[in-house]
């Protein structure tokens, strides 16, 4: 496996593309227009510069990673020679299915198609293609270059060989992997959404401030980041979509906190919009 295409250049797509390039893969990053892809290019180059200056990568790694990165608005050009395609677009099942149908036509029959979903069904997505045995979910975590885990989620038809190849790619990315049988929310998203939603309910009820709720979980339960700060990092609109999906599929305990709904309606989407549970410059 030498060439990886990443579809979608948001926070996760950029992080996946950066990590793949630094790890030795040839990488095509695809998005819908030139303005978006140019911004992604600048962001990834800035991350490479920062990693070089901080000593996380060598001068040689920096140069080779830049040479391995290609930025492309045409999906066919980006994906036609890929060994693995990782879709990293919005958590909307209709959008993902549309992309996978296109990829199924474009890519070689041997190409593995992966979705970076945190909640949605690789079985449902794979069923819309002619290769459900080669469709899998690869759930990366934000920030991709720092987080150590990839959840690998089997669809009903996902083959053992596909899982083996994806695990091998994960090893080259220097990630640990866990294998999960498909169920809404998998492992981490189910737990994370519950904890985050309860933190939001406590904030809404006046139990404690956002700062103190996060501090309590960091210092009292040894979480590396507080749940409200993490929700801001993920994006409150993304978290709300995930909660709505889990509420529909798993029931009442995943009902989104009214405060989360209110913040999203107000455009307070977290770090990316400048304000969420915290304010950002």
Per CATH, the class of the largest domain reads Alpha Beta
Helicity range: 40-55%
Distance between the termini: 41 Å
Mean pLDDT: 95
- Percent strand equals 5-15%
Q: State the shape.
A: globular
- What is the string of SSEs from the N terminus onward? EHEHHEHEHEHEEHEHHHHH
Number of domains: 2
For the secondary structure, the number of strands is: 8
Counting DSSP H or I runs of 4 or more residues, the number of helices is 12
Protein name: 3-hydroxybutyryl-CoA dehydrogenase
Binding site for NAD(+): 8-13, 31, 91, 96, 118, 142, 272
Pathway: Lipid metabolism; butanoate metabolism
Site (Important for catalytic activity): 139
Secondary structure: elements and pairs:
Elements: E1 3-7, H1 11-22, E2 26-30, H2 34-53, H3 59-68, E3 69-72, H4 75-79, E4 84-87, H5 93-106, E5 112-115, H6 122-126, E6 135-139, E7 149-154, H7 160-172, E8 176-181, H8 188-205, H9 210-220, H10 227-234, H11 236-250, H12 258-265
Parallel strand pairs: 1-2, 1-4, 2-3, 4-5, 5-6, 7-8
Antiparallel strand pairs: 6-7
Helix pairs in contact: 1-2, 2-3, 8-10, 8-11
Keywords:
281 residues; alpha/beta; Rossmann fold; N-(1-d-carboxylethyl)-l-norvaline Dehydrogenase, domain 2; 2 domains; 12 helices; 49% helix; 14% strand; globular
Structure characterization notes:
By secondary structure, the chain is an alpha/beta fold. The protein folds into two domains: 3-181, NAD(P)-binding Rossmann-like Domain (Rossmann fold, 3-Layer(aba) Sandwich), CATH 3.40.50; 188-270, N-(1-d-carboxylethyl)-l-norvaline Dehydrogenase, domain 2 (Orthogonal Bundle), CATH 1.10.1040.10. Helix content is 49%, strand content 14%. The protein has helices spanning 11-22, 34-53, 59-68, 75-79, 93-106, 122-126, 160-172, 188-205, 210-220, 227-234, 236-250, 258-265; strands at residues 3-7, 26-30, 69-72, 84-87, 112-115, 135-139, 149-154, 176-181. It has an eight-stranded mixed sheet, with helices on both faces. The termini are far apart. The model has no long low-confidence stretch (mean pLDDT 95).
């Amino acid at each position: 496996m030498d060439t990886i295409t990443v579809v979608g250049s948001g926070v996760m797509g950029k992080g996946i593309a950066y990590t793949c390039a630094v790890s030795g893969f040839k990488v095509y990053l695809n998005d819908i227009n030139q303005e978006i892809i140019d911004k992604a290019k600048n962001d990834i180059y800035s991350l490479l510069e920062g990693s070089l200056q901080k000593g996380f990568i060598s001068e040689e790694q920096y140069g080779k990673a830049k040479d391995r990165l290609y930025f492309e608005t045409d999906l066919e050009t980006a994906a036609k020679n890929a060994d693995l395609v990782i879709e990293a677009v919005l958590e909307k099942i209709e959008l993902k299915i549309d992309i996978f149908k296109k990829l199924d036509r474009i890519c070689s029959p041997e190409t593995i198609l992966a979705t970076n979903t945190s909640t949605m069904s690789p079985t449902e997505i794979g069923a819309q293609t002619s290769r459900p045995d080669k469709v899998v979910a690869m759930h990366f975590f934000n920030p991709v270059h720092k987080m150590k885990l990839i959840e690998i989620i089997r669809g009903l038809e996902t083959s053992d060989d596909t899982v083996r190849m994806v695990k091998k790619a994960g090893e080259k990315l220097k990630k640990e992997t866990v294998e999960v049988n498909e169920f809404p929310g998998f492992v981490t998203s189910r737990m994370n959404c519950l904890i985050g939603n309860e933190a939001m309910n406590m904030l809404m009820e006046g139990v404690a401030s956002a700062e103190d709720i996060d501090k309590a979980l960091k210092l009292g339960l040894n979480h590396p980041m507080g749940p409200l700060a993490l929700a801001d990092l993920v994006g409150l609109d993304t978290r709300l979509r995930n909660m709505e999906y889990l509420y529909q599929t798993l029931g009442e305990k995943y009902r989104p906190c009214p405060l989360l709904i209110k913040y999203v309606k107000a455009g307070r989407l977290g770090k990316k919009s400048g304000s969420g549970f915290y304010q950002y410059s």
